[in-house]
Amino acid sequence: MAKAQPARSTIDYYGIKGTNKIIRAGDCVLMRPSESSKPPYVAKVEKIESDSRGHVRVQVRWYYRPEESIGGRRQFHGAKEVFLSDHYDMQSADTIEGKCNVHSFKSYTKLDAVGNEDFFYRFEYNSSTGAFNPDRVAVYCKCEMPYNPDDLMVQCEGCSDWFHTHCINMTPEEAEKLEHFFCQSCSPEDQKKLNSSHNASRHIEMKVDTKRRRR
Ligand SMILES: [Zn+2]
Ligand SMILES: [Zn+2]
């Protein structure tokens, strides 16, 4: 015999307790973590439902912070970078602390100012295997690292590659004043023909460790 399910119905919006903010499906939210020492969880609200007693639950899709991923945080991960995971949960709406914005990588780099509630994502993340999509990412500079939007870079007018100021022994102040920049391989005193391999697009694989971490 089928058990009676508590009656649940999908609702259009939810008001965050103690605020005048309204959440709808598709919004990104910050949720209270299980340990108070941790930063809030970042999630996308997929669905909002209420039971007959008015208790509201939300179906969320988690964004993982680099620290929460199997491979951990790497040097090129931005401070505000999150990964769109395939991990869904039902959570009580009471754990929602506020709204946030998860931008695409491109629109994040165009923000005039980055607020507390601004994040970005460029990778989807498989929470059981630790794999990323895309699984290859372009690298820049002589250190061959993917772009980290937190690091200031300057572009070479010869080869068009980008360089970290700290990798070319320049201070950010010097870089801001710079009108022209040629990297070591393109510098006028050392006018070599552009090496085609230097210009070729370079990528690294997004490697995955074997250890697993659970939320
Ligand atoms: Zn570098
Ligand atoms: Zn160059």
From TrEMBL:
Pfam families xrefs: BAH, PHD
Keyword set, alphabetical order: Metal-binding, Zinc, Zinc-finger
One annotated GO molecular function: zinc ion binding
Boundaries of every BAH domain copy: 21-136
Domain of life from the UniProt record: Eukaryota
Positions of region (Disordered): 192-215
InterPro entries the UniProt entry points to: BAH_dom, BAH_sf, Zinc_finger_PHD-type_CS, Znf_FYVE_PHD, Znf_PHD, Znf_PHD-finger, Znf_RING/FYVE/PHD
Ranges of residues in domain PHD-type: 138-189
Protein name in UniProt: Uncharacterized protein
Lineage, highest ranks first: Eukaryota, Viridiplantae, Streptophyta, Embryophyta, Tracheophyta
